[in-house]
């Protein structure tokens, strides 16, 4: 039993308690996942057949890693363990058992896009207002019902639900749900939620099938139990009912999927369901330095709703958590990228020792760009690369069509997106006509009355004109103006704007991000050709080389905090710590939502082993205008004892530090009184008197002026650095360097031809 040596006494006790119900609710990094891993190895060592073990993990990646570790102890037998996510495991079971509930074994799994597209067709057929019955809204509503095991029939019978729908003016939701279910059934399709819902139906209606799996899975284990929904809870409960050899591990402080129906009650129910439950406490964090663990504890203590836990680390004290300020998201990316290169060489780290975590997918753009510039290899997890995202590809397809109207793939992608009545049949007719008349598709589209029947021609013609108008526009306008115009007039922006779900907002923000990138490209001073077509050449390269992924490659990991659950990295950067971004503006309406955001922050912090860096930008582009951002309240909530502010941003002058940031440094790193060390609560700095410096707001109507006659002694205003005085000029035209003393930032040297300056 050598392998049990790698466990502390509590962990070992939990591993050895193989029979009966077991629950471990413990803080991050305390070895919960390790306990499950060792437990499975231990069971197999004790002679349990791996075929009789079911382990439910949060991601398939987690399952894969766990299996590899178990293999090291028990060898190839580990291949036979049933291990995976709820969705993957029960899809596998449903393939075998689907006939019991009237589905073919080869049923289709509808992804979210398929589901929403089906909902849209139903809305159209039912002639319902698709603004009121926004497809995402309907999808989320159906999803929530399914995750709470409410069938379409029950939905329609439930007086409370009906009253709720009626009061929102959406009395037809029940009927839509009903039709949606029937259509999925007719199509032999299950959506994501069906994989759990139908499993429940199967286990509920077919006792013989339930019995089969109850006796098969003699031992059940669930990781990240805090994020299971009711549907998942019930599957586990049913399967464990005979043997009751069930072990769940989780951390209420890391529950971050309430918006998808995860229910913390599942932890509390567990105690009620199994009166002879054995509960194990794990308190020692093995992952992180003391500073990181203490900072995480101080953050989570701001949440009222939580189970009391004591988490400590006996690892080294470690570096303080670095807080870094940037002037923009691009600069933030640059600082992170430079930091990675620096630490990698100073501390002999690999790229895969670093992770960059963000709140929303859209933030990856600035990070990707900065990493690319420094040739740092990276991989985006839990999502497709920015330029691979559907909405980005859609908009880019319009750009492609604008510059090359013969691009068939781009045409197929957007001819009917956003929907404009050119259905599959019409598209087919266009292709046939082009073929018959030996004309290009573009020619058919621009002069459709010559080749198509009247009705089809009438719907196709405006699309051709639209693209032609984009072509004219692109000839005389900057990349940004062209791109924005296309985003607006193609209807993409409007379509995404109307989708108020979290995913919808993300997509909308992604487009905004793309436009921001194009705006910055338009404003670059180092290139002559700045048309959208030039920008596109770069994009084409980016989209091409992202396919071949090597899982063991030495790459920096980029991911949303949601997808970082359970993972760990020696160095972690949490970026975009700004009010309205993190915490998200969507989460500021109630304490419950804010507490979930705080748990998300707790998850993020606790991914770091040795070093943690938090960053924020004082300005961020939104819709082509620069907005000032305030640092996140979450930074203020960390006990200042564990923080080190670092404002030596590349654009901030180092020599100015004491004057400008002295106040902040004092407030953060040296408590005003001894009290702070003895107080159990971290010092919370009120929002209104935030001590973090703010970005310069350019004067109204700020426009750079001609600086060819700039003289020493003149006063100037810089777009970002604010007001200052020229103290030296050197070099020859066009490479004159100006040394300017900025009031807020101190001394900086700027290359005059690039500097955005105004003489005041
Ligand atoms: P999370 O809540 O983030 O999912 P967790 O509780 O599942 O965390 P693990 O991932 O199992 O924690 O463990 C965190 C790290 O600590 C891992 O690298 C693990 O190998 C290590 N670890 C856990 N227990 C021990 C131990 N007894 N001795 C040495 N290392 C340990
Ligand atoms: Mg874990």
How would you portray this structure in words?
The protein has 760 residues and is of the alpha/beta class. The protein has 29 helices and 24 strands. Strands 13-14-12-15-16-11-19 form a seven-stranded parallel β-sheet. Strands 3-2-6-7-1-8 form a six-stranded parallel β-sheet, with helices on both faces. A five-stranded antiparallel β-sheet has the order 23-22-21-20-24, with no helix packed on it. Helix 3 (60-74) links the parallel strand 2 and strand 3 (82-84). The model is unreliable at 541-549 and 649-695 (pLDDT under 50). Bound molecules: adenosine-5'-triphosphate and magnesium ion. The site of adenosine-5'-triphosphate has 18 residues, from helix 2. Adenosine-5'-triphosphate binds next to helix 2. This is DNA 3'-5' helicase.
List keywords for this structure.
760 residues, alpha/beta, 6-stranded parallel β-sheet, 29 helices, 24 strands, 45% helix, globular, binds adenosine-5'-triphosphate, binds magnesium ion
**Average pLDDT number:** 85
Report the C-alpha radius of gyration, rounded: 29 Å
Shape: globular
Strand order of the largest sheet: 13-14-12-15-16-11-19
Task: Please give the alpha-carbon distance between the first and last residues.
Answer: 78 Å
Largest β-sheet summary: 7 strands, parallel
What is the strand tally? 24
Small molecules held by this entry: adenosine-5'-triphosphate, magnesium ion
Parts with pLDDT < 50 across at least 5 consecutive residues: 541-549, 649-695
Q: DSSP helix count? A: 29
> Which structural class should the secondary elements be placed in?
alpha/beta
**Approximately what portion of the residues adopt beta-strand conformation?**
5-15%
Could you estimate the helical fraction of the residues in percent?
40-55%
Domain UvrD-like helicase ATP-binding: 5-289
Keywords: ATP-binding, DNA-binding, Helicase, Hydrolase, Isomerase, Nucleotide-binding
Family: Belongs to the helicase family. UvrD subfamily.
Catalytic activity: ATP + H2O = ADP + phosphate + H(+); Couples ATP hydrolysis with the unwinding of duplex DNA by translocating in the 3'-5' direction
